[in-house]
């Protein structure tokens, strides 16, 4: 009989068998065998970001590969969970299928489909809130994952707060708050108080995430855009310095600033 890992079925059986063998204590890969949930979690986060990057670049061949890498993470965690007696991959698939069906009664049940996208989003959030209540997460901010990137978690927290009315009336209120937080940050810096400086910087960034929400701006996307702009402009700065026979260095700060302003156009 042909070894299942040398077949190419269009389901997950081959990949599951590959992972099972990699994790086999007697015959598997020593590196894979010694991994646990904590050691693999950073790779899971990294692969999710690489999926998003491929989408932003519209690199569809890359996306296919990155989705495979992300799928491997699901298989990896499920295999470790099965070994520990927690759950199986089948439980994962069954659970998410049931969740999607329950959250879409307008598709899988008798609920009306005659709703706006905003109403559908509100229904989705209501369903999630009910699920959190069933898990005993009764607080407004319960269940917002600690492992999210801090800026993304700040926006999720602020959305939860806004739903219960703990929010500014408009973006102007958040702009005023940013000015207040910036002043407090300046005071902490002037006092050379490291702990207070960190705390005030956090307050400023959280308020900025709130302002982004009120303006309908994705702060992660906005910051990625600025990061890309900085990379592009500083490449122009390096080119300008190279034409003068120079390289970036502290003693060339004034020349770099002029080149930066020229790159801005």
UniProtKB/TrEMBL annotation:
GO terms for biological process: dATP catabolic process; dGTP catabolic process; dTTP catabolic process; dUTP catabolic process; response to stress; TTP catabolic process; UTP catabolic process. Residues 35-108, 177-233 form the NTP pyrophosphohydrolase MazG-like domain. Pfam families: MazG. CDD domains: NTP-PPase_MazG_Cterm (cd11529), NTP-PPase_MazG_Nterm (cd11528). One of its GO terms (molecular function) is nucleoside triphosphate diphosphatase activity. Residues 125-136 have a biased composition (Basic and acidic residues). Residues 108-136 are annotated as: Disordered. PANTHER family: NUCLEOSIDE TRIPHOSPHATE PYROPHOSPHOHYDROLASE (PTHR30522:SF0). This is ATP diphosphatase. It comes from Hasllibacter halocynthiae.
